[in-house]
Write a structure and sequence with these properties.
The complex is a heterodimer of chains A (309) and B (365).
Chain A lengths: L4 H29 L24 E7 L1 H4 L9 H14 L5 E5 L10 H7 L7 E5 L17 H6 L5 H6 L33 H16 L3 E6 L5 H18 L5 E5 L20 H21 L12
Parallel strand pairs in A: 1-2, 1-3, 3-4, 4-5
Chain B lengths: L3 H18 L8 H10 L14 H7 L5 H26 L4 H12 L2 H8 L5 H16 L3 H11 L8 H12 L3 H27 L17 H10 L1 H12 L1 H12 L4 H18 L2 H6 L2 H12 L4 H15 L8 H35 L4
Helix pairs in contact in B: 1-4, 2-3, 4-5, 4-6, 4-7, 4-16, 5-16, 5-17, 7-8, 7-9, 8-10, 9-10, 9-14, 11-12, 13-16, 13-18, 14-16, 17-18
The chains are: A alpha/beta (309), B mainly alpha (365).
Chain lengths: 309, 365
């Protein structure tokens, strides 16, 4: 059967549209490649995109908010970069390879972490490191990856539409500083612990831990350097809640780095909140040590997962 | 062409014997084809071969040892491709005798014998699809050829080429409706190819791994290839691709009736493009379905026994049993190449003489 002229025109029009879409996707990829240093990869997380693990590779996924995302920093200066350097160094002698994927989102609250872990299940992490910061206790960021229809549909985070439309890019939400209730001068609530104003936050963190353990990931929850006495109180009560939630699970670790260094020291923090490269080095070293020690004391921490490497 | 099954079995046995005798190449794309064959999508794959999934996936999912399966694919693909060239000759209006000759030349060409030696490639499928699709297009089966091309590009981009060639042919023949339908088929196959590339590049973090093929403004693969081996060797390798067939083809062009000459003309843009972006000698092999029908027009003026001498010497000249080749074969190949060139020259002379005689006698060539 010979198609009519009208049918042919319709076919060509559809093909032209599809060609346009594919070319747009390729241009989007190119735009992203030009912004490798501080950018977000096509799968919506920071730095280099990772695929399936190499045989024997161990992978750590960092989940958190602005403090773990560290927008504007080069990879080597960030916590993720420093953690990777430490793990790589530790594994070099035994030819053990590690990778670190930074799944953090700026201004992401603890109640978004489960969704993050769900979205990136295909990365098959062995260890989930939850590094929660100071700026937001709950809620999803306005330019978070889940706001993108394309990301929700296929896991791909486009950059070009926002650029063309002049909108802020995905994951470009600015660091929110210190949440009101964590400030020592806060007047809102006297009780900042998990029994008080942080109840929802602590419940979200506990849910995340339970979910991650349910996925048979090893979980390391890191309490970041304390930014205030109220922050310390909150994190101490969180530790109790999480230990209870984990129920003594051998693959759970709580790492209190609240006193790892003084954030007012410019060597570790330029502004009393963010970390310098040295600050991240200290934190990365402590987390790496905890993970490696965990491997030693918990045989099978990495490799007892069904379907793991 | 009579007794195609007989020729298929004979060619398969011959290629099978060569495959069994050949040593595995020291360097090949085996590892990558096995990997993509098993995994289908191999995240972070940085090689141009990662995009050529179809043959690898089909073969690696069959039972049996990998090397055996790939060699069987090269052998059966080569035999089927040879038969397809023979069928194309019939569609082009050539005699059954010339079709058989074309079949055997196609079976013993540089490309098929190279793939029998190093089977981890999509090339055998391309050698098959080229003549199959062109024959379909000439018989006005545009949709079928388009469907084959759309699936074939999942194995290698060359599968879209016959469709574009035919589109150009139909355009030059001022057959507007046919050209538009062929263009639709060609653009559909190209769209499928582009969709596969885009999907793998964007979602699965594929890249071409710094392959010079994608450096279109910097000379493509051609510049790197010539730079690495030098012009004299490059010229020698390009000649070795078809060897004496170049002479026969050139003479055949004078004798060819339409659409054979037009097919050759319309293949030139694709030849230039593929020789530029791919390893040129390997890229040219895909066009054997254009070269061989023209070559047999010239060779066919010789008696059967001399045609037989040509096929045997041509086949041995293209034989690869190892890298490096066994010493005996190295010399034998040179001798056989010389014999095949001499026979080709004799055929050209005979054809020209016959053409002169025809002109003198007033009979059409």
């Amino acid at each position: 059967m010979t198609p009519t002229r009208r049918t042919l025109i319709l076919y060509f029009a559809v093909e032209a549209l599809l060609f346009g879409f594919l070319v747009f996707a390729l241009l989007d990829r190119r735009a992203r490649q030009r912004d490798q240093i501080e950018g977000v990869n096509q799968w919506g997380y920071r730095f280099e995109a990772h695929g399936s693990k190499e045989p024997g590779e161990r992978r750590v996924a960092i989940v958190g908010g602005s403090s773990a995302f560290e927008g504007g920093s080069r990879y080597g200066r960030t916590l993720a970069g420093q953690l990777y350097i430490e793990l790589r160094q530790a594994g070099a002698a035994d030819k053990q390879t590690y990778s670190v994927v930074n799944l953090a989102e700026p201004r992401a609250g603890a109640d978004s972490y489960i969704e993050t872990l769900r979205a990136y299940r295909y990365l098959d992490p062995d260890v989930v490191c939850i590094f929660d910061g100071y700026d937001l206790l709950s809620g999803t960021p306005p330019h978070g990856r889940r706001q993108s229809l394309v990301f929700r549909s296929v896991g791909y985070l486009p950059v070009l539409p926002a650029r063309i439309a002049g909108r802020p890019a995905w994951l470009s939400d600015p660091d929110g500083g210190i949440a009101e209730i964590l400030r020592d001068d806060a007047a809102a609530s006297a009780d900042v612990t998990c029994e008080g104003a942080s109840a929802v936050y602590c419940a979200a963190m506990a849910d995340t831990v339970r979910f991650a353990l349910g996925q048979r990931y090893a979980v390391v929850v890191v309490s970041p350097p304390s930014v205030s006495s109220r922050h310390r109180q909150q994190q101490q009560s969180l530790a109790t809640v999480l230990r209870r939630a984990a129920g003594g699970h051998p693959r759970f670790m709580y790492l209190d780095l609240g006193g790892a260094f003084d954030l007012s020291d410019p060597v570790h923090s330029p502004d009393g909140l963010h970390r310098t490269e040295i600050g991240n080095h200290v934190i990365g070293q402590r987390i790496a040590t905890a993970i490696l020690r965990g491997i030693g004391s918990t045989p099978g921490l990495f490799n007892s997962r069904a379907g793991g490497s | 062409m009579r007794r195609p099954a007989f020729h298929f079995i004979a060619i398969a046995l011959l290629l099978g014997a060569i495959a069994a005798a050949a040593h595995a190449p020291a360097s090949s794309d085996r590892e990558i084809y096995e990997r993509i064959g098993r995994q289908v999508v191999d995240l972070d794959c940085h090689d141009v071969h990662c995009f050529r999934v179809l043959a690898a996936v089909a073969i690696e999912h069959l039972p049996g040892p990998s090397l055996f399966k790939w060699k069987a694919y090269a052998v059966l693909g080569g035999a089927a491709a040879a038969l397809a060239v023979g069928r194309l000759c019939i569609v082009l209006g050539l005699s059954g005798r010339l079709a058989i000759l074309a079949t055997w030349i196609a079976a013993t060409g540089f490309g098929p014998l190279q793939t029998v030696f190093d089977p981890y490639t999509s090339d055998p499928l391309m050698y098959l699809l080229g003549p199959v699709m062109m024959a379909d297009l000439l018989e006005n089966r545009i949709a079928r050829a388009g469907a084959i091309g759309a699936v074939g590009v999942l194995a290698k981009e060359f599968a879209a080429v016959p469709l574009w060639m035919f589109t150009l042919m139909a355009g030059l023949q001022r057959r507007g409706d046919l050209a538009i339908r062929a263009a639709l088929a060609a653009s559909t196959a190209t769209l499928v190819w582009l969709a596969l590339q885009t999907l793998l590049l964007t979602l699965y973090n594929y890249s071409y791994g710094g392959n010079p093929s994608v450096n279109l403004l910097g000379g493509g693969y051609f510049a790197v290839w010539v730079g690495a081996i030098g012009w004299p060797r490059a010229a020698a390798l390009l000649f070795a691709t078809f060897g004496p067939l170049y002479l026969l083809m050139a003479a055949g062009l004078f004798r060819a009736r339409q659409p054979l000459g037009l097919i050759a003309l319309c293949s030139l843009p694709a030849v230039a493009a593929f020789a530029y972006v791919q390893q040129p000698d390997r890229a040219l092999c895909n066009f054997q379905f254009v070269v061989i029908p023209l070559a047999v027009l010239t060779l066919g003026v010789l008696p059967d026994w001399l045609c037989g001498v040509f096929v045997v010497s041509f086949g041995i000249a293209n034989l690869r049993l190892g890298a490096p080749q066994p010493d005996v074969l190295r010399w034998l190949r040179i001798v056989m190449l010389a014999i095949s060139v001499v026979v080709a020259l004799y055929a050209v002379a005979a054809m020209l003489k016959q053409a002169r005689d025809d002109v003198r006698d007033g009979t059409p060539a």
